[in-house]
## 1
Amino acid sequence: MSVMGGGILLLALSGIGLLRPVEDVSYTVLSPIESALRSIAQPVANVVTRYGDTRDLTSENESLRLENERLNAELARLREETTRREELERLLETKNALSNQEFIAASVISRDPGNLRQLVAINRGRNDGLKVDMPIVTEGQTLVGTIARVEDDHAWVKLVTDVDSAVSALLLESRAQGVVAGSYSREMAMEFVDQNAGVKEGDTVVTSGQGGTYPAGLVIGKVTGVEGSRQELFQRVTVEPLASLSKLETVLIMISFVPTQLTPP
Amino acid sequence: MSYYVGITLLFFVALIEVSVLPLFRVYGLQPNLTLVLLIAWLIIRGEEEAYVLIPIGGVLLGLVESAPMGTAIIALAPVAVLQEIRGSKLGQGGVAMAIAFTGMMSVVYNFTYLLVFTLTGESGNWLVATTDVVLPVTLLNIVVLVPLYFVFSVVNPRYRRSLYA
């Protein structure tokens, strides 16, 4: 019972932020050891997961995947930009929403060991100007997630596949809107998609910018499946993230984007 | 001496949980290695050492994971509580008891996290979490426990003494 009591006491102290210095110091001390362990285990993991692929093929595949991710993101952004420009040109002069953004790079230093949440820790924190809810993207500028918790020298990033993640999104091809939500099974689904929206496999899903929590036009992923009978109000669209979330090493934080906190009308 | 070994082992297991195990996830899941290690320790070496190691394991895990500090201690505490109920009979059950105990504790451990997440306002569908995470991880923990149990048995002095008796 004393162990339980101690746990509850620590939980309460953590809740009011009194343990923050301890957590910061532990990350400063432990993150180099974690990185060393990960770099030792990474080659073994590559062999196990890729069934004996040679190292050259792996690195080539990795660079091609990054290039593909970057090009897909670029293409999606250009399409998005064109469509938006056509819609808004008559009304106002627009600029590319992303080209004006400022980014800072961060390394992934740890992954949450729990199976119920999908979070990674990065080596940037409050001292670098990070704030909760700032969007995080890959080097190819596809959406990774948002900052869930910030400490002085590190931050926890909630991935888009996390069960607590919900992103206002639209399908680039059909302009159908919905919400991309994560799940416990680490799969993403786009919900509330109109039954009449022509959705097909391979369609690109991007952030819609609705709600003000993400900038518009960030690529989230590709449609991998569409479910839903005609009797249902919405179709359920399965989405695969374009970013390789299980192998993240470097991410970019969109520090110039300030998420809007909407108040009820 | 065994306390130093246990604490060192827990320290590395906590680090392995955040650095190495995510690279070897099975269907996106990884075993709760600290929990499995503590259960194996408790059953093979007895409750006296485990009572000290359980809170230490909780603190070490709390330092490296994203959940609020204290969650891991609360999640691991039932291991000690069940030992209290079961008494010394726990160590006599062999590997079968270890498997049953791991299964039960894995469910309690993950439900504790789920409870803390729910209380801190992070959404959680308990039914989906049970089918998609808790039960598969319970199986994974049992798979990891079996070899760990035999390794602990072999290195346990009592076991080695019994070989020469």
## 2
Amino acid sequence: MRYTSAAAALLASAVIGGLGITPPAAHAQAGPSQVRAAWIKTCTDKKNDTTYPCGHWQLITRDGGKLTVKDASTTEIDGKGRRLDDAGLFAISGDGRVIAYERAGDHRIVVRQAAGGPVKVLAASLVPKRYGTSPLSLHLSPQGDRLLVDSTDEKERVPTKVVTIATGKIVELPAKDSMNGFSTDGGEVLAQRFNRDNTLTLIAYRTDGTSVRRTPSQVVANSAMTALAADGKTVAVIISGDEEAKKVPRLRIYDLETGDLSAGVDLALKAGQTPYLAQWSADGRLTVLVQTGDEGSTAVVREFTVDTETGAATQTDKYSISKTRYAFRVAGE
Amino acid sequence: MKIRIAVAIAAGLAALVAAPQAAQAMPHDHHDGIRYASVKGCTVKGEQRPCGEWRLMMHSGEKGSLPDAETIAREANGKSSHTQVAPIAVSGNGRRVAYFTKSGRLAVRTMGGGVKVFAKDALPRVAQYDVTFQLSDDGGRLATVFATNKAVKTRIFDTATGALLGSTPGGQTLLGFSADGGELLTEVSADESVTDLIAYSESGEQLYRATPPQIVAANSPSALAADGRTTANVVMGGAKSQLVLYDMQSDQIIAKRKVKLPAGDLNMIDWTGDQQVTLHLVQYPDGKANKMTIVQIDTETGAVKVRDHYSLLKDSYVFAACGG
């Protein structure tokens, strides 16, 4: 999401205020303060030919620049504090202005403006002592004002936590649910639950603790990804393309309250270009990201704005990520 | 009727042929039918392979064999595959068995009756291990499914005459015949990452095609009722197990019945009456013979009745149980 108007700049300031951390004045405007993605380098252990993350997390800014996040941990740790061969936790808000990560040294989760400035250290309880940061993943809301700390511990002991950054307030969501992400305004979290009867239920959790849930048809349950709009009920459903069958990815719109499902449209993308991230913008348009380039080759990320009525896709951004990467996270992921 | 690599069985066809049973009035008089067919396994040159003849284990406790049946599958060119098991299937009522003869022909034998050897060109020339047989509950119909890389149509035969009745598209998973053998049910991966169910007439005409709800698609396999449109499937979940009835024509779940099932993994599901679904449940206890429990579910009430249970021959390499 880009802020180009004066009003948007004001909005951005408001959000920064809401974050409760002081932005450096020089970075309070659009431009270099927005980041597209973060990545971390790979190194190879020649003894056993395994790879591991090394160096610092790097930010790729909207204007093509680079920033290094020196205090972000390179790797995760387990419950005994041992470093693992998985990249440290990292997330970027949908608007590219806020980052959250696992801090080197104490492995606490922190949040700050992408452009720089002081960090806000979040509650120590977000990292379960039993497991360290290893089962966790971080997701920032589109405006960076809320953080989702999802846990994939096998025993489903650790609840998902939603942190309102300005206040530090933590809301817990059921450990057995897996998280799809925030709604556009950050007001809801879309989750899914795998039921004992092998079906999957979609659930939108609201901030007030209430929720809307429905067990959808196969096409929604088997989709590549879902994205919740600001209204907390409209779900964009992206269906995988199939290169072998020469079928392009499709889009359907699902209403979580009524169960209504649109007939769907083909997206004007190639069969192999199944988006791996979809986000509704505040004005009701849908943005999708397509990534190409396997491990060991340069990753190219393309951003498209999709017309939900026709499936027409307009490329709005394109950037690459080094082939030396171990892992990367894009804004809004 | 599916061949399960893991366990096996044997039976004595010869014994069956010698002792024809007179009473055939009851379609499900299992007492004179085959419970299952099994072949032993042994290790030759370090490789596991089937050994000896197919053994037919009868409800009466008798044991027969199928001396004219191939146990080791042949390649498309007729040479032995040495290690692969040749296909076999037992009808739901246990009265008929389909197999390849030693001379490579398709055959269906009736317990206490004769054997129908099919025409040489009844089946396409493919490796026998790429062929799966399924018989209808009464054994009157045979479907031959080909798991070749290139999709080959499934062929449907009348087992009394050997006549080819029709074919259904290749590349689909055949789930089985309807209760009366008049239709077939298949499952296929469709566009948009969903699984569809399709009902065909025995002549290969598509009757219904539906994208069922998750609770059906995610708890495969389904079985088709005699009406050719109602399916049954089971959600296996211990105390929370349920039978799900689904109408392909209206795309509606008709009923969900809580069912109390004995232990075991689902091996087969078949309609065996207008209000009856039969399950084969198998257990694989470590170091012991596999156990089969067969239950009948009343589709109206969900009441479960154990029809039969037995331990499979411990030396079974592969077995094929009757379906109904």
